[in-house]
Design brief:
- The protein has 382 residues and is α/β, with parallel strands linked by helices.
- Helices cover 37% and strands 28% of the residues.
- A hairpin with a 2-residue loop joins strand 6 (124-135) and strand 7.
């Protein structure tokens, strides 16, 4: 619903959520007024495939694309929150006995440092309590540990600054993704349900299990829509670019020679089943670990949310309801958002969650003051 007559004097402008993907950069900025949220500006721009093969070129492209989106959009201010990429962020689950949990910070930092070859004192290590589990007749606390090298965080901040932004927080993709979906789960019955949030990007898929406002399982796996193109290219013996064109034509249900349509569909099913098997393992782990907390459904975001074949395969393998994400659910749309707001929004889930990091339960400030959130991975500059 378009809300062009907001009482803007009571609105609080949130940071720009900047999702730097492997094939595209998405940016979105929200504003809040009381409990209401609206979209101020949205921008998307592709990244050249060749840039992924050369790090200096990739950085130059990221800077250029962000500057382009800032100049053409209706973003307010320069405050921004971004997320580390899947290659830069380490995620694992660790369990501590209840007695050990009293000194969880020290124990988890030490274990994460050893596991990922990090410095417990200087590198970015954070964690979330996933819940209590029974192991060997003992109750333990399970934690989700998120870690990255301090230099990686600094480099990410420098990249945003070079693009003309003011980084006020560096987030972890699973946390931002969960935050994006959580905003729409306000009913009490929704809060008591365990839901799988799946963001299928170009190279990686982020999986988050959430219940009652908390994350209980998080994982990132090297599978994305690029895998679909690789399967199609292999089956039809063609270049990946041509394979992507065929996939998008099938996605849009455009006319296609029947034999080609069948081969493309078979390739998509083969790739989708690979992801479905990985998600089935996550579901099984959750079922065994958190007994009695049944998963209700799965919401799929990212570019993969537009692949009907993927949704059908996941529905069949997971035996739960699988639906594409409605990222703009619960959000009012600014008139100036243009075509970007009218397009399918599933690929904007992560960017929305990043902007929401600036949301505060405190009293609404007057525009143009902007929120300065505490970063998940301790990556901020004054």
């Amino acid at each position: 619903m378009l809300m062009s007559k907001w009482i803007v004097r009571n609105q609080r402008v949130l940071p720009i959520g900047v999702d730097i993907g492997h094939s595209c950069i998405k940016m979105i900025q929200l504003a809040e007024s009381g409990d209401d949220l609206r979209v101020l500006s949205v921008g998307r721009a592709p990244m050249p495939v060749s840039a992924a093969m050369d790090e200096p070129q990739r950085k130059r492209c990221v800077v250029a694309v962000i500057r382009q989106l800032m100049s053409h959009g209706h973003f307010r201010g320069r405050n921004a929150v971004s997320a580390l990429s899947a290659e830069e962020l380490q995620i694992t689950s660790l369990r501590l006995a209840e007695a050990e949990s009293l000194q969880a910070d020290k124990a988890l930092r030490k274990e994460a440092a050893q596991r990922f070859s990090l410095n417990a004192d200087t590198d970015a290590i954070d964690y979330l309590l996933a819940g209590s589990v029974h192991q060997d007749e003992e109750v333990k606390n399970e934690f989700i540990v998120l870690a990255a090298k301090a230099q990686t965080v600094e480099d990410h901040i420098s990249l945003l600054e070079e693009a003309g932004l003011q980084p006020v927080g560096i987030d972890a993709a699973p946390c931002a993704l969960f935050r994006s979906f959580e905003k729409a789960m306000r009913r009490e019955e929704d809060k008591q349900r365990t839901v799988i949030f799946v963001d299928v990007g170009y190279r990686y898929t982020t999986v988050v299990f959430g219940r009652n406002g908390e994350i209980c399982l998080a994982k990132q796996m090297p599978f994305g829509t690029a895998r679909f193109d690789e399967e199609i290219a292999s089956k039809l013996e063609m270049a990946a670019g041509d394979a992507e064109s065929l996939r998008l034509r099938l996605q849009r249900d455009e006319p296609m020679e029947e034999g080609t349509r069948q081969l493309v569909t078979e390739a998509l099913v083969s790739a989708a089943e690979q992801l479905a098997k990985e998600l089935s393992l996550c579901l099984r782990y959750h079922t065994v670990t958190f007994r009695g907390k049944r998963v209700e459904r799965a919401l799929v975001a990212g570019g993969g949310a537009h692949e009907k074949v993927l949704l059908d395969v996941l529905q069949r393998h997971l035996s739960i309801a699988v639906e594409p994400a409605e990222t703009f659910r619960g959000l009012d749309l600014e008139d100036g958002c243009g075509d970007e707001c009218s397009r399918a929004s599933a690929d904007l889930a992560l960017a929305v969650g990043l902007s929401l990091k600036g949301r505060s339960p405190s009293a609404v400030a007057s525009e143009p003051s902007e929120a300065v959130p505490e970063p998940v991975l301790e990556g901020e500059r004054s």
